[in-house]
Design brief:
This is Type II asparaginase. The protein is an alpha/beta fold. It folds into two domains: 231 residues, Rossmann fold, CATH 3.40.50.1170; 112 residues, Rossmann fold (3-Layer(aba) Sandwich), CATH 3.40.50. It is 31% helix and 19% strand. Strands 2-1-3-4-5-6-9-10 form an eight-stranded mixed β-sheet. A four-stranded parallel β-sheet has the order 11-12-13-14, sandwiched between helices. Helix 4 packs parallel to helix 9 and helix 9 crosses helix 10. It is globular and about 65 Å long. The N terminus is likely disordered. The structure holds succinic acid (SIN). Succinic acid binds next to loops.
Length: 358
């Protein structure tokens, strides 16, 4: 018993000494990168090493993720925080506000040079776009996930995490908006989408293109986004605890007004319509959207197609209907911009300006 107690104290002391040593070991020549962990498959585990579906996301803590990639200590002084531990289908507006506030607080510190956010891939593109609009710093912010759980053969999490830290540690990543590091590629948070249910090369920016590559663990940039982001936006979430309710209604052959009417009756302030083609409005849907607008709901026309500019006054007379168009944003990203826009104004001309700005 006595032996057990003194062994425990010895282990605790050793742990403390290791913590002190690693704190002191911070190399002043390296950037300080904070990893904020939110869960997802990158922190997931399966029953066996071949379990790559039907595993449990968000089980492994941030310290274990860091310890699994000791090579990171050669490129940055890495520290970690567990912000949430969730699968990303459960990411909510409130999670986003909490995360964004933490990112802004950390980046305001002189001794934090970049942030990496580990995240489930299912809604990673949405969190990246939200942060792209509300982070108030030019310092690098990089989202990363994985398609295979940490317990899998050839798990993609460790190399993705290493690349993400390399990206967050490079001054070249500053001022480029929130970035996504997956599968040896660098994507813009504004434009990237998850495009495949299970493949490791699922993150794509098909037509506008990715920003660069990783090679040998080093980032190389070839493009930059032209839309405004981070410090250039007008959105300030520092005093917000909720965002205005906005939902997405999806179009398909034979669709009726049921979902739109339900969203309006539930009290949405904004509605994104993921129309067919160039945002066309089915005959049964147009009066429901028009009625929503008459009740004060701001309507944004987007497309379910996934690429291309949504033409204003093309498939519908937006001037007459007083609708907004989503430009090139997907419906799920248009929802985010509309929520933030509604924190500033209900004026549809102003909101349309925002969609052409960000
Ligand atoms: C999730 O999004 O949390 C699960 C799926 C993934 O991370 O790939």
């Amino acid at each position: 018993m006595l032996f057990q107690k003194s062994a425990q104290s010895m282990i605790a002391l050793l742990g403390f000494l290791v913590a002190v040593a690693s704190a002191q070991a911070a190399d002043p020549k390296l950037a300080n990168v904070t990893i904020l962990a939110t869960g997802g498959t990158i922190a997931g585990t399966g029953a066996t090493s071949t379990t790559t579906v039907g595993y449990t996301a968000a089980t492994v803590g941030i310290q274990t993720l860091i310890q699994a990639v000791p090579e990171m200590t050669r490129i940055a002084n890495v520290s970690g925080e567990q912000v949430f531990q969730i699968a990303s289908e459960n990411m909510s507006n409130e999670h986003w506000l909490t995360l964004a506030k933490r990112v802004n607080t950390l980046l305001a510190q002189k001794d934090v040079h970049g942030i990496v956010i580990t995240h489930g891939t299912d809604t990673l593109e949405e969190t990246a776009f939200f942060l792209n609009l509300v982070v108030k710093s030019k310092k690098p912010v990089v989202l990363v996930g994985s398609m295979r759980p940490s317990s899998a053969i050839s798990a993609d999490g460790p190399v993705n995490l290493y690349n993400a830290v390399a990206l967050a540690a490079t001054p070249d990543a500053a001022g480029r908006g929130v970035l996504v590091a997956m599968n040896d590629q660098i994507h813009a948070g504004r434009d990237v989408s998850k495009s495949n249910t299970t493949m490791v090369d699922t993150f794509r920016t098909p037509e506008l293109g990715m920003l660069g590559y990783f090679q040998g663990g080093k980032p190389f940039f070839y493009r930059q986004v032209t839309r405004k982001h981070t410090t250039e936006t007008e959105f300030d979430i520092s005093s917000l605890n909720v965002l205005p309710p906005v939902d997405v209604a999806y179009a398909y052959a034979n669709v009726g007004p049921t979902a739109i009417d339900a969203f309006v009756n539930a009290g949405v302030k904004g509605l994104v319509h993921a129309g067919v083609g160039n945002g066309s409005l089915p005959a049964k849907v147009r009066p429901a959207l028009s009625a929503a607008r008459a009740k004060g709901v701001v309507v944004v026309r987007a497309s379910r197609v996934g690429q291309g500019i949504l033409a204003r006054n093309g498939e519908a007379n937006d001037d007459e209907l007083d609708f907004v168009v989503a430009d090139t944003l997907s419906a799920q990203k248009a929802r985010i911009l509309l929520m933030l826009a509604l924190t500033k104004t209900n004026d549809t001309k102003e909101i349309q300006r925002m969609f052409y700005t960000y």
